[in-house]
Amino acid sequence: MARKNVFDIGPEAEDGQTAAAHPAAAQSRPLMGLVSQGRQASPVGAISQTLGTINRQVERAKAIEERLASGQAVVEIDPATIDGSFISDRLPGSPEQHAHFVEQIRQHGQLTPILVRPKVGDEGRFEIAYGRRRLEAARTLGRPVRAIVRTLTDEELVIAQGQENSARSDLSFIERALFAVRLEERTFSRDTVMAALDAEKTVVSRLITIATEIPREIIEAIGPAPAIGRRRWEHLRDLLQEAVVKTRAKALVKAKDFGDLSSDDRFESLIGSLKSPKERAKAEPFVAIDGVRIAKVARSDRRVSVAFDSRVTGGFGSFVTERLAGLYGEYRAKDAQK
Fold first, then answer.
1. Same structural domain, 261 and 126
2. Do 275 and 302 reside in the same domain of the chain?
């Protein structure tokens, strides 16, 4: 159940601590937090206490309770009392990603609270709206999770869930697409789906189309594939239009060594195996003068593609992209001189 301590929620008491930090709270109002004076007050002292001081304490307690009720206060909750959302917005990540996230929480603490709602019909339990990775990290570390508790309808929960991820650009393309499909499968209105994804109707329709035309078992076998964008998933969908190719793809993702690859590499491996020989392009590393492999260059009869690994090159890919127009101008000028 939620602990009674509250973080960063209002004015300090006279002794420099927040009102919620005092365990000797009033029976009828557990958050009132009246300050113990450390000795029994004399009758004269009790009578001389001004009504203004009492009123200020009562008003402070009411403000705290109102903020808790509206989800503006942060409380600590036992992770064992929190269940997953009734609708998933993520594909499972790798153990390495989870370990890295846990280490971040261990070193720096949980800087951002999760959002939960009280679970209807199950007193003392909660349902998460967003912050699943933070919750799992708290479970791994064996510590309480900092959370905002708010009463939410199903529509409010999924909108909060989707918009938090959209604001952080935290979901990959295919995770957003699957989230849209799951919302629609739950018969949420298209307006709710649009609000949850913070996306226009045409974008939502495209997401749903891709995630429904690619078999779910193939998507789940590939995983979130954070580096793979819309056009690549559309290409995979186009390749899977033929029944024989779809059957082959289902067999490939079940291969024993397929799951040993990273999610992005699983996508690349699958799509590479499904391409016709003419479409296949041999990717070669492009090594800079300092020995860093800054890109992979793939050439075929129809195209040349250059892929930058942002984990190695940082923002170099964006740096090059911003200068493509200028490079094309140089190419045209040079070609005109021939």
1. yes
2. no
